[in-house]
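Data deposition worksheet. Section B asks for the primary sequence of the deposited chain exactly as it was used as input, without tags or linkers unless they were present during the calculation. Section C holds the resulting structure in token form. Section D is free text for depositor observations; keep each observation to a single sentence. Incomplete worksheets are returned to the depositor.
Section A, Depositor: J.P.
Section B:
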Amino acid sequence: MGVLYPDSAHRRPRIEPSAPPPVPLHDAAQALAWLDAERANLVLAADRDLTHTGLLATTLYRYLYDHAHHDDALALYGKALRAARCARIRPAKGGR
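Section C:
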């Protein structure tokens, strides 16, 4: 995400980088191609480990929004909400 959206790093969870990265991405086109190819797997991965579902949703937010992957976004955010409820975490809600 840092290659594709370096300007929004402050909005993503801080995750220690692996060395070397599992998939070296050198430019935005490569990063976007990888995300497009792996999008379905990333959404499904949210079912594997509920402790990371919210982090995954937060990390993928801008990509899903910018590229109009609304169905995947809704599926992923729903999983994150259910994971938060299972963990008894109170997610922030918009409005009052």
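Section D:
The chain has a mean pLDDT of 81.
The radius of gyration is 14 Å.
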